[in-house]
Design a protein that fits this description.
A: 154 residues, six-stranded antiparallel sheet, 5 helices, B: BirA Bifunctional Protein, domain 2, nine-stranded mixed sheet, four-stranded antiparallel sheet, 6 helices, globular, Octanoyltransferase (chain B), transferase (chain B), BPL_LPL_catalytic (chain B), EC 2.3.1.181 (chain B)
């Protein structure tokens, strides 16, 4: 019984990659959803955006569809969309609550999502309905690993 | 080789998933793996274990395996051996083995620190819940014959056995196709269906993307009816475009998460599908530069892309001009790009074009190949009924 690693021929037969991939940046104090949105908590309100990994995989964002202030958002449900390379991708909210502010700057500068995904590229601010939901999200280490596993799929 | 042996006696269940380091001796069409499995049996007071060596080969080969129980009795088993899912056949054992069957087994490929490890599970009769959906095995606890298997895991189907279901649909009204896609996206999200590809054409139709770029429509909306065309808004990305007969359309409804692709890479692959198709007819096409997604021959556009991604499930897709009436494009600024023209395969190639269906098939198989599907299943009896009726 052998106990060796796959030969690269085996790997290519299976069309899998065993290369190690570089990391996108992940910030320590944020929480992350598996659909690649981040949340930054500040008291009862939370700021939401998409991660560096997400913006990198999207390409240049040319348009952001923002919800209206006052809209209710639900964890795991779509609240808006970004468009890049002729693809509109839904953005899902990592938490439930009410939208109290949206980043109007994205209307004129959608590229902020690419250039500054965690700062100036923030998308909405939400008054949280259920802080317990934060426990279902990943922390930065878990999210880093999650991204690594996702990228290894092809 | 690592193997985990668990004992039934303590009544705390058996985890029959074995982890093995894969050590292949590769031959041309096969991957030979040596696997060992532990086999537990309940009916004797002191559980006897059986260890077997199995040689497995990829490709759905039927293998007969025979092994001996430690008491000297034999159990003959026959099953399909393939990577991924196969359900087994059961055979009555010889001797007093009546209760034991191999029902199905699944393989999972795990990556961890750069090495590939095969997890293999043996399941016993009574695992009715074992099924393969979208290449995913699900097992739940089962008290079959008093044996408890705390598996409760989803064993992932192997990537190499990804199947694509293709619907060849002829000419379909735009809204009907949209409704169908919405249903399929929802079904794909909930795991009811596999990755699906719609292959079709539309009657003359202008469509706008999410940004509603009306300004790129050069004639009043009312005039479109005289032209015999419809206008629709959609949630896809991209600008205004035209669809019509003799333009091959593919709408993939696939899970990007399952294959680890982001929007950008997905769109690049769609471009490649069309570029490859063009090259079959010696037409050199290329992807557009930044902000000009699509497929171009020189500065003439031959293929367009507009996609929607919702919870990583795609809809809409690509449109490739085989030989549509290019005059329709005069009424729009196609994709919002003012100083470039539109073209078709007919215009660009010197070669004699085969029947359109042939070209559409080439598009489909190119898509399947580029996206790594190992098999294509054509859906039978495809029909679309109008709005309020059930879509078959």
């Amino acid at each position: 019984m052998a106990s060796r690693l796959w030969a690269s021929r085996g790997a290519s037969y299976l069309r899998v990659s065993v290369f190690h991939r570089g990391f996108s940046s992940v910030l320590k104090d944020l929480k992350y959803a598996d659909s690649h949105e981040w949340v930054k908590v500040d008291g009862n309100s939370a700021t939401v955006g998409i991660t560096d990994h997400a913006q990198d995989h999207l390409g240049d964002v040319v348009y952001v569809e923002l919800p209206e202030v006052g809209t209710t958002v639900t964890q795991g449900s779509s609240f808006g969309a970004v468009e890049s390379v002729k693809a509109t991708s839904d953005i899902n909210s990592p938490i439930s609550g009410k939208v109290i502010e949206v980043n109007e700057g994205l209307n004129s500068s959608p590229g902020l999502v690419n250039a500054s995904p965690y700062e100036n590229g923030w998308i909405i601010k939400v008054e949280m309905g259920n802080e317990g939901e934060l426990n279902t999200l990943m922390d930065s280490d878990q999210y880093s690993k999650f991204c690594e596993e996702e990228d290894a799929k092809h | 080789m690592n193997r985990e042996n668990r004992d039934l006696a303590g009544g705390d269940g058996v985890n029959s998933v074995d982890m093995l380091q894969l050590g292949p001796e590769l031959e041309d069409a096969e991957i030979r793996r040596e696997l060992a499995v532990d086999f537990h049996e309940k009916s004797t007071p002191s559980p006897a274990t059986m260890a077997v060596d199995i040689e497995a080969a990829v490709g759905g080969k039927r293998e007969e395996m025979e092994w001996e129980k430690s008491g000297g009795r034999k159990l003959l088993l026959r099953r399909w051996v393939a990577v991924g899912l196969r359900s087994g056949e059961r055979r009555e054992g010889e001797g007093a083995f009546g209760l034991l069957w191999i029902r199905a087994w699944a393989l999972r490929l795990d990556s961890g620190s750069g090495s590939w490890v095969l997890n293999m599970g043996f399941l016993f009769e009574g695992f009715e819940q074992w099924g393969c959906k979208n290449g995913v095995f699900t097992a739940t606890r089962s008290e079959a014959m008093g044996m408890e298997f705390p598996l409760g895991e989803e064993l992932e189907g192997m990537r190499l056995q990804r199947s694509l279901e293709v619907w060849k649909m002829g000419v379909v009204n735009y809204l009907d196709a949209l409704k169908l896609q919405e249903k399929l996206v929802s079904d794909r999200k909930s795991g009811k269906i596999l990755d699906t590809l719609l292959s079709l054409q539309h009657p003359p139709t202008f469509t706008l993307g999410k940004r509603r770029t009306y300004h790129n429509l050069l004639v009043p909306e009312a005039d479109l009816q005289t032209l015999g065309a419809e206008l629709h808004y959609t949630q896809r990305g991209g600008d205004i475009t035209f669809h019509g007969p003799h333009q091959a359309i593919l709408y993939p409804i696939i899970s990007l998460r399952d294959i680890g692709l982001g929007a950008r890479k997905y769109v690049e692959n769609l471009e490649l599908v069309m570029i490859e198709l063009a090259s079959l007819y010696s037409v050199q096409a290329c992807a557009g530069r930044t902000c000009e997604t699509g497929v171009w021959v020189g500065d003439r556009k031959i293929g367009a892309i507009g996609v929607r991604i919702s919870s990583s499930i795609t809809s809409h897709g690509l449109a490739f001009n085989i030989d549509p009436d290019l005059n329709y494009f005069k009424h729009i600024v196609p994709c919002g790009i003012a100083d470039k023209g539109v073209t078709s395969l007919r215009r660009e190639t010197n070669k004699l074009l085969p029947a359109e269906e042939v070209i559409q098939e080439q598009l489909i198989s190119g898509f399947a190949r580029l996206f790594g599907y190992s098999s294509i299943v054509y859906k039978e009896n495809v029909s679309i009924l109008s709005e309020n009726e059930e879509i078959k």
